[in-house]
Amino acid sequence: MKELEVERLKKLKQYEYNLGKEGYKIICGADEAGRGPLAGPVSVGVVVMKPDSMLEWVNDSKKVTERRREILYDRIIEDSLAWSVNLVSQQEIDELNILEATKKGLTYAIKDVIEQLKQKPDILIVDALREIDTCGITYQSIIKGDANCYSISCASILAKVTRDRIMREWDEIYPQYGFAKNKGYGTAAHIAAIKEFGPCPLHRKSFIKNFI
């Protein structure tokens, strides 16, 4: 690994280093993918990385190429102590609203990680969410955490790759909306397709009411 990349990763892990100095050993990162799209589930990733983990390319998932995200997905899983990705469907998003659906997904993913570890993590660091059910785990909410904390970056990649794969699968069933390309986000072409063909079961009714 190049020296510049090592230095970048050290900076990305600084938050975890500081938590370690405060006595937190099992550090859990969490992030979501898909709060903004017009279609598909919201995906919430939670991961506990090994303390010495320092994977090349890890960053905010939006700053990593799709090819590298796919490679990192497997590497992150291999370099973790526990991980989970929970999906909350478009129907639940419509029923709960996107914020509450995201919080629900987070809680379920945390429970899964606790079950894998057979204990609770010492602390959860999460990207910008507050008033969440962490199953009693102390948490810190960090603005732009996916770009500033290694564990959150890893969680963001797990969440995004999982969701992107699902949207590519749905593209085969509903090719007219371009899900493989737009991943459900409201591009001009996607909105035009909704107006032309109407919505499909994957669309979030509460998100597309202005287009139909």
What does it look like?
The chain contains 10 helices and 5 strands. By secondary structure, it is α/β, with parallel strands linked by helices. Strands 3-2-1-4-5 form a 5-stranded mixed beta sheet. Helix 4 crosses helix 5 (98-117). The longest helix is centred in the C-terminal third of the chain and has 24 residues, at 150-173. It is globular.
Q: What is the CATH topology descriptor?
A: Nucleotidyltransferase, domain 5
Quickly count the helices: 10
Mean pLDDT metric: 96
- Using DSSP, what is the number of strands? 5
For the record, the count of structural domains works out to 1
Widest sheet, order of strands: 3-2-1-4-5
The first-level CATH class is given as Alpha Beta
- State the distance separating the first and last CA atoms: 51 Å
Write the layout of secondary structure elements.
Layout: H1 3-12, H2 14-21, E1 27-33, E2 42-49, H3 66-78, E3 80-88, H4 90-96, H5 98-117, E4 123-127, E5 139-142, H6 145-148, H7 150-173, H8 179-182, H9 188-197, H10 205-208
Parallel strand pairs: 1-4, 4-5
Antiparallel strand pairs: 1-2, 2-3
Helix pairs in contact: 3-7, 4-5
Q: Key features?
A:
alpha/beta, 49% helix, globular, 10 helices, 212 residues
How would you concisely characterize the structure shown here?
By secondary structure, this protein is an alpha/beta fold.
